[in-house]
Amino acid sequence: MRQHSESGHGHHHTDIDWEVMAAQLENSGELQLPVLRRTAAHLRELLDPAKEVRRVLDIGSGPGVMTCVFAEAFADAEVVAVDGTPGLLDRALARAERLGLAGRVAVRHAELPEGLDGGDEHGEDGVGTADLVWSSRAVHHLGDQQGALNALAGVLRPGGLLAVAEGGLPMRFLPRDIGIGRPGLQARLDAVQEHWFEIMRADLPGSTTVVEDWPAMLSRAGLTRVGSFTSLLDLPAPLGETARAFLYTHLTWLRETVSESLDMEDRKTLDVLLDPGAPEGILRRPDAFLLSATTVFKGLRSAR
Ligand SMILES: C[S@@+](CC[C@H](N)C(=O)[O-])C[C@H]1O[C@@H](n2cnc3c(N)ncnc32)[C@H](O)[C@@H]1O
Fold first, then answer.
1. Which domains does the chain have, with CATH numbers?
2. Could you give the CA distance from residue 163 to residue 140 in angstroms, rounded to a whole number?
């Protein structure tokens, strides 16, 4: 799946080629594994202890890192990765196979949100229904976020739980003063990304603005006991190779997509951070760390 835009909003391009991002998405998931495992355990606690979890949907699964975590956490469940990008679903299957979970993980190619409509409870035609529906960082790529939540809530079985990972805090990985360029680079990068995000959303098909009060949106989708919880990933310096590779790709993406909005000095700083041979580069500098907070919004479908 490729998100397309002929932006009338200036020179930022907001197309996302998800196939190209496959390795980065899987790396990111690997780094988040401790958080994802805690999240799965917490979601189990939010469900009625008597409720059997037979089917789990991971909507906008990407390469299926959380899909496989669910397959491990819910031993009696079939877990289905649903995504619009075939290459990512291939990765999800390969991952499940590597982890010995192949029999319990299925994939389904679907364009959202239309792909959520219809189908019987096992997903013979459509994605089917589930006791737990999870969607991480996918709803914000859909034009009508309230419509998407309504559709996600619509595939819940009675007593089922919907959980969407959206928001949290901007990731931090550098000190305020990194010894090159003007201090405060991360805050300025946050601002230009926020601007990019705004244009990205405006360019989506059927883009609709909504006050992003996720608990209120989940209530409007008909769910009860709505609320949220936040998990922290805290990888201190010095970082290992996977985290450095992840940050290198992240900074490359920033240079390619938003650096026009930065001044010359910050662009030069980005170049140094992306110089693989430079001691100040992100691949080598000793002070790089990774701190990120992810908020999960959740609500239950009543049991009757
Ligand atoms: C930011 S990634 C999130 C992947 C994973 N859930 C995670 O948290 O790492 C967004 C995912 O949503 C999928 N996606 C975006 N828009 C979609 C659409 N309209 N239909 C189906 N899938 C879509 C992309 O293919 C991608 O895998």
1. 2-300 (3.40.50.150)
2. 14
Specify the pLDDT at position 6. 41
Q: Residue 14: its pLDDT value, please?
A: 76
CA pseudo-torsion sign 241, 20, 36, 144: positive
Q: What pTM did the predictor assign?
A: 0.95
pLDDT at 118: 63
Strands 156-172 and 290-300: antiparallel
Please indicate whether residue 88, judged by its CB atom, sits closer than 6 Å to ligand 1: yes
What φ, ψ does residue 40 adopt, rounded to 5°?
-60, -40
Indicate if ligand 1 lies below 6 Å from the C-beta of 35. Answer: no
Is 111 touching ligand 1 by the criterion CB < 6 Å? yes
Burial label, 218 (beta-carbon count in 10 A; 0-12, 13-18, 19+): buried
pLDDT at position 108: 96
Residue of 1, 69, 95, 249 to test ligand 1 pocket, by largest number of atoms within 8 Å of CB = 1
Query: Cα 63 to the chain's mean position, in Å?
Result: 11
Cα 98–chain centre separation: 22
Instruction: Give me the pLDDT at residue 2, please.
Output: 45
For the chain, the residue count is 304
Q: What residues in the chain have per-residue pLDDT under 70?
A: 1-13, 118-119, 122-123
